[in-house]
Amino acid sequence: MRFFKLTQAYRSLVIAALILGVLTAAMNLGLQSTSSYLIAKAAQHPSTILLLWVPIVAVRFFATARAGLRYLDRYVGHDVTLRWIRDLKTALYQALEPLSTAELKAHHSGDLLTRLGSDLESLQNLLVGFAEPLAVAMLGLGLVFLVGLLLNPWLAGLLILMLLLAGLVMSGGNWHLAHLASRQLVTLRAQLTARVVELIHGRTEILALNVADTVHRDIDQVEAQLDAAKRRLSRVSGVFTGVTVLITWGGMWLLLAVGIRAVHTGHLRPLLFPVLAMIALASFELVGGLGPAFRDAGSLTEAGRRVSELLASAPHQAPGPQRTARATSVPAVQFDRVSLVMGTPSQKILHDVTWELPPRRHVALVGPNGAGKSTLVQLTAGLLLPTDGAVRIDGTATTQWDPEALRQHIAVVPQFPYVFHATLRQNLCLADPQATDAMLTQALQDAGLGSWLEQLSQGLDTPLGERGTSLSGGEMKRVALARALLKDAPVLVLDEPTEGLDPVSERAVLARLFSRARSRTVLWITHSLANLDLVDEMAVLDQGRLVDQGPVGRLRTHPLVQQLMRYQTLPS
Amino acid sequence: MDSRLWRKVSAAKRLTVGLGLASTLNGMFLVGQAWTLARLVSAVYLHHAFWAGVASDAWALLALIVARAAILGASEKWALDHAAAVESHLRREFLQALTRHHPGALNSPESGELLHLAVQGIEDLEVFLARYFPQVIVTATVPAIVWLGLMVRDWVSGLLVLLTLPLIPVFMVLIGQQADKASKRQVAVLNRMSGHFLEVIHGLDTLKLFGQSRREATAVRRQSEEFRRTTMKTLRIAFLSGLVLELIASLSMAFVAVAIGLRLIHGLISFQSAFMVLVLVPEFYLPWRQLGAKFHDGLKGAQAASMLFDLMEGQPAPASGGQARLPAPGPWPLAWRDLTVRYAGRERPALSRVTLALGAGQHLAIVGPSGSGKSTLLQTLLGDLPYDGDILIGGVNLKDLDLTWWRSQMAWVTQRPYFFAGTIRENLQRVAPDASPDAMEWALREAGAWELVQRFPRGWDTPIGQEGYALSGGQRQRLALARAFLMNRPVVIFDEPSQNLDLATESALMEAMARLRQGRTTLTIAHRLATVAHADLVVVLDHGEVAQVGTPADLRRQPGLYRTLLDAYAPRGDEDALLQADPSV
Questions:
Q1: Which of B 440-469 lie inside 8 A of A, CB atoms?
Q2: Measuring CA to CA, which residue among B220, B216, B218 is closest to residue B196?
């Protein structure tokens, strides 16, 4: 997988982490065996304590080293993981940057982006939670074998066999458990969550329809199924726990039984018998980490697969030679037989749209929901490229423009503006990093946010919260409008910028906007048919087709416009 | 941890008792195991005993091992099962508490928070009970039993171990405080840093529009590097405390081993006792180390329990209502007299001295900015919101009405209608169990939903609800209307969609609404001019007060909020032309 390549820069650190993990386990083994050797030796009542000096020092060394090494091991392991994640994020960003959100959504199975956060979190466990226990178990086995050889090769072989068995049962058992859980629990949990969501959102209606009892009975039914599935799983889980204990201690018991015989036949020195018992007990700790590691292995693989898919994404249209030279005057925007096919199953969103937005003209674009108005915005800004035909800015097709150079000409208020988890100032300065306070305040006032700004206790430095949660939908739109106004671009494309504004302020904002933008081109997308007197002309879009275009007065009588007028929502 | 969990949930009690018993037995068997093992090792090593000499010890050891395996397996199952039982018990109680009242009557947080509690919070609690809590019980019992075993065989080692004991809680507390601090302050900072990446990914289009997207790649790297530094700083403290815990355990083990070694030389202790001590000492420290490692599992679950109980206990008793039923079949006239509604925790009333009268079979349109009290006015009819003033239905005070009966006289179509998980037909049957297929077809046709349903993959046997066929906003509305037709109630309450729908849906909805209004008293939160124009009475609400009330024609002539709205919305003259052009007038 591609993301493993990113670890290569840290190969030595990764190896260091793995070795530290193994060494920590080795120290534990050393502590247990030398301390049993120590007391076995002491039980022979040696004439002087000096004979015990070596095991005593060894015991102390192993004890200190175990703690110290574990600290180092955890530190290095986490540090290298975070370095790797840092590189992974950078690589991901570089892979995703050339794509538009719409393209991303169209090219990947829907929730790839929404799961990115939790996927990255799972991947943080790759080294510490998975690779290391595996390395400890595998290298640890070799170590145990070497130590065992000091006692007796047959016993060493038997111990390795028991350890392998324990390791297999633990990893296989936990893998199986996780698999069972994901097969049986995940769907039921999702069902239960879905019903709880419905219940909480529909509380008023449940009360009004007098159906609370039925709703609860439905939820209880799912809960009962979930409980039954959990019960089945807990039985398996309990059996695994028991079997693991049985194999661990039973293995030691078997080893002792064989050891008794070895002592009797002279193949094992009696002095080493207590050591054998302690080594047997301690060595099973080596494979203990395999259980949790394999419990998460499945979700780790899935996360890895999804992140790799994202890393491998590439824009579907290869760029040719790109124009970087800015237009010298206000550029014309032309749609030349533009069609767009998108989504799964693929749908034709725009049909053969030919349209021109002459320089400095103010045009309103109206149409019912789903007509393709917002798609038109994305095409104009080069966020989407047409399937057929061309969108030309200053005579150059958007496919031939360098994306950043193209967007210098256009300021956009999108349908769903994005507000960053930062201060108001930081959000606005995205458009113009050098903007002064006076400029920012002016832009906010022009966007109809003057009195809103006055109410903010921290003014321009007010944090806007995650995804702009402290803002209403309309406020978010107007922050985006202020941001677009700050950008010194000759073409303004505004997707319902005054949504949620009361009618009086709406008219004031629009009137000011259009009068100030005399030297700019404005494409204004609107649902409401009020304020159309402020623009030069209008265009009507329906089901992906440009139906009509011309002076406002004439188009008012168009049947589609009449219909739109009848159903338009009241401003609130 | 909240003690209410143990007082109120019997499964939690059984969980504790069972685990306590199992863990005590396990501790005792552990000591027994060490004792037999030491006997066996000592016999083989010192007395060169062969199999026959140690057979009884060997079999006893095996029996103890099997018994421990059984106990540990059983207690795992016990913990999982009872944690699951607590989980489903609490979820049931919680959800029932939520539907016992109108949301406005509850002193409850936002839906998002409730959801998080009902789904994630209760699950965290289950993890706490299944994983962390058993470890607490083990830590409370096993070290004590192991220590007793040590004292009996070798009190010197017992005392040595005891000396290190006070150090453990000190460092546990240190780790705990770190984790706590981390979870409160640092985690917020850290989340924000790691959230930066997701932010720029989701806001990529915006960055591009402002020519910042390529530059942002360096910021991604810088933020992730900052994240690494800060995280490592936090982790270093946690790891260091872990190091000290580990050192205490390791060194105490080494100290005990050397001490018994020296005493062995002088014959002050038997080898058998010495070996048993050596086996037991690590078992004394193990539970604490494991508890420290699981600390984070415990934190969140413990908080969830307190929040659940606080929410469930802080509730008023449900409104009981009276006994009265209206004799004649509806529709009835409705009247609000001097009605004031206050939500708990809010200073300003949601509705203030609202007086309004609607004749039998008349249609009321409610207009006003968001937050002006429109939905509250409708919801007072449920009889569950505490209010001052009077609500009269057919001249009878709502407080005297049999609430169950009264609620069965109303049909509600809200902005986001609730559907049961199940097919469309099942959803219709839920509200009208005796309805024939013909009646259901009629209702769907009346609601303009019949053609729509025909286009679904399996017609009206298509499953809907969150797990089923994904319905659009307009489709939900039409199905909810079909349900209202089928219910055939004399009072209909409609919250018009505030979002723009596509034209076909809009016209289907408007026509269906007009049919449903026939012969019923209806109340509509109106978002369409055409809806307002068809009403008999319009009330304009502003900040919870009645700003204007009258027929649409009256209001058009008066200066005021309604006129301002209308003027901005449609230029002079357009509006009349528009209404005349409307076929449904």
A1: 465-467
A2: B220
User: Helix, strand, or coil here: A365?
Assistant: strand
Whether residue A342 contacts residue A102, with contact meaning beta carbons closer than 8 Å, is answered with: yes
Those residues with Cβ within 8 angstroms of residue A438's Cβ, 6 or more apart along the chain or in another chain: none
Q: What would the two tokens of residue A512 be?
A: 């000011």
Partners of B207 on chain A (C-beta within 8 Å) are 430
Strands (E), B111-159: none
Rounded to whole angstroms, the Cα distance separating B201 from A113 reads 8
Q: Do B271 and A404 touch (CB under 8 A)?
A: no
- Min Cα distance B255 → chain A (Å) is 8
Angle of helix A559-567 relative to helix B574-581, nearest 10 degrees, comes to 100
Peptide bond preceding A345 in cis form (omega within 30 of 0): yes
Are residues A352 and A258 part of one domain?
no
In this structure, are A105 and A161 located in the same domain?
Answer: yes
Q: In the 8-state DSSP scheme, what is residue A494? A: E
Best residue of B48, B138, B205, B243 to probe chain A, by most A CBs closer than 10 Å? B205
Mutation to test the A interface, candidates B407, B418, B479, B505, most A Cβ within 10 Å: B418
Residue A224 and residue B65: Cα distance in Å, rounded? 36
Model confidence at A65, pLDDT cuts 50, 70, 90, reads very high
Q: Does A35 touch chain B (CB under 8 A)?
A: yes
What element of type H or E holds A450?
helix A450-455
Top-ranked range on mean pLDDT: pick from A372-386, B113-127, B378-392, B407-421: A372-386
The CATH superfamily assigned to B346-409+523-585 is P-loop containing nucleotide triphosphate hydrolases (3.40.50.300)
Q: Is residue A563 part of a domain?
A: yes
Residue B179 CB-half CA count within 13 A: 18
Give the separation between CA B197 and CA A420, rounded to whole angstroms.
11
Contact between B289 and B253 under an 8 Å Cβ cutoff? The reply is no
CB proximity B539 to A under 8 Å? no
**Domain limit, last residue, from A311, A344, A359:** A311
Does A298 lie in the same domain as A411? no
**How many domains does one find in chain A?**
2
CB–CB of B245/B289 below 8 Å?
A: yes
3-state secondary structure of A46: coil
Q: Report the distance separating Cα A177 and Cα A230, nearest Å.
A: 11
Is the minimum CB–CB distance between B396 and chain A shorter than 8 Å? no
Q: Helices B10-47 and B51-100 meet at what angle, rounded to 10?
A: 170
Amino acid type, B207: L
pLDDT of the residue at B578: 46
CB contact under 8 A, B220 and A93: yes
| pLDDT tier, B581 (very low <50, low <70, confident <90, very high otherwise) | very low
